[in-house]
Amino acid sequence: MRGLMMGRFQPFHLGHLDLVKQILDQCDEVIIAITSSQFNYLEKDPFTAGERIEMISGSIREESSLDLARCFILSLENQFNIATWPSYLKSALPQFDKVYSGNDYVSMLLSDFGIPVVKPTFLDRNQYNATKIRSKIISDENWKDFVPNAVWKFLTKLNAKNRLEVISKSDTNPTEH
């Protein structure tokens, strides 16, 4: 059995990693689909799809209880025709048996097309929140405790603080999504 989790992962954090563990406890494999992959260098989506793949694979690789061979990490561009989105997922991704999502809108759309949706148990979503983590990075607050060590190392090497600061102060506002 194969489970699907989707997210922007801007950045991948401990809440996301916990969800990977939950899915792999219930399924043989997990597809981790990076959504909005075409967006980057924006306030809401500062990291590229490739950078997000590196964060996720590094996090899984360093977690001794997880096996990267059981994970597919793929990127997906947004599909703007909402009515055809479930079909798009089926055609763009490897076969999956169920989707793990806490988003009621996503659950409704997929359920309407006969795709089983499991509502997972989330770590404290107030703490493990990518928007708050990006804000902590900019303000030099402790953010290391909210992300896997691989993500902390990767974003530190990338100088994510500088990127986030420049993007947040820029008067250049490319088309948002």
Descriptors for this entry?
177 residues; alpha/beta; 7 helices; 5 strands; 41% helix; globular
- First CA to last CA: what distance? 33 Å
Q: Give the biggest sheet.
A: 5 strands, parallel
What CATH architecture label applies?
Answer: 3-Layer(aba) Sandwich
Structural class category: alpha/beta
Q: Categorize the overall geometry.
A: globular
Can you tell me the CATH class? Alpha Beta
The count of strands amounts to 5
Rg (CA only): 16 Å
Provide the low-confidence segments as ranges: none
Counting DSSP H or I runs of 4 or more residues, the number of helices is 7
How do the helices and strands follow one another from N- to C-terminus? Answer: EHEHEHEHEHHH
Quickly count the domains: 1
Topology-level CATH name: Rossmann fold
Q: Approximately what portion of the residues adopt beta-strand conformation?
A: 5-15%
Can you describe this structure?
The protein is of the alpha/beta class. The chain has one domain: 3-Layer(aba) Sandwich (Rossmann fold), CATH 3.40.50. The protein is built from seven helices and five strands. A five-stranded parallel β-sheet has the order 3-2-1-4-5. Helix 1 (14-26) links the parallel strand 1 and strand 2. Helix 2 (49-62) runs antiparallel to helix 6 (149-158) and helix 5 crosses helix 7. It starts with a strand and ends in an 8-residue tail after the last helix. The mean pLDDT is 93.
Topology:
Blueprint: E1 2-7, H1 14-26, E2 29-34, H2 49-62, E3 71-75, H3 85-92, E4 98-100, H4 104-112, E5 117-118, H5 130-138, H6 149-158, H7 160-169
Parallel strand pairs: 1-2, 1-4, 2-3, 4-5
Helix pairs in contact: 2-6, 5-7
